Amino acid sequence: MSYLASFGIAAERTNPFPFNISAVKHAKNIQFKTPVTFIIGDNGTGKSTLLETLALSLQLPHMDGVSYHKSGFEASKKLLPYINLEWYIHRATGFFFRAEDFGNLINSSERRDAQLHNQLDLDGEVPHHIIQQLKDNANEQRYFIRKNYGQDLQSFSHGEAYLKIMNEKITDRGIFILDEPEAALSPSKQLSLLYFIKEHLKTHNSQFIIATHSPMIMAYPNATIYEVTEDSMDEVSLQETEHFTVMKSFLNNPESYLRHL
User: Fold this and answer.
1) So where are the chain's domains?
2) Class assignment of domain 4-100+173-258?
3) What residues contact 179, with CB distance under 8 A and at least 6 apart?
4) What local confidence, expressed as pLDDT, does residue 125 receive?
5) pTM for this one?
6) Between β-strands 224-228 and 83-87, what pairing exists: parallel, antiparallel or unpaired?
7) In this structure, which of 61, 120, 153, 221 has its CB flanked by the most CB atoms within 10 Å?
């Protein structure tokens, strides 16, 4: 059984942003019927805003460990008074993963490294490994990464680092909200993610709510799929989604698409 039974945005207003985006206008009574629920739709339909509002309402921890008071959640804060949640079991614990947070954390660590390199101008005077140790100790972001993920994520490819995060943060039961986790995953790594979720659910009563563009990921067995369009947010089968039909059509006959380029 899932923890959240349903949620919706009960705002009467339809303007300005974020009240005018499709996912907000049509998310009125979204039922969580299965442990894995996908929210899909074209770019700009508001999937991420919807997931951010849900994560903010639940106060789920997210990757960089910074509170929701930071910039980037302005739209969600405006929607927060209008969100309605119904529970099977009240358990607002878990993790919120946004693809953009991964890049921001890695980039901020690398920027801090560059700053420290300029400040610690000791080349030729102090052995390189000592300089590196000084920089590592002074880099708050790198310390945070090592504390939370066991080692530097920079030592992995992006795809491997994504899966490393999943393994470190999805270890107990809870609600896990993933926003476009496929962003840096190859097709084989997307299958690895599906396998990871399947194995986790064998031993943990958890709930996954995932926004994705990947037909491979949304093919998770027996999942619930909601497709956001300009006019609605309806439950659909995998075969009914635009993502699936476009991808299948393209792979069956790529020449018909590419000959006009």
Assistant:
1) 4-100+173-258
2) alpha beta
3) 47, 48, 51, 52, 96, 97, 98, 99, 210, 211
4) 55
5) 0.81
6) unpaired
7) 153
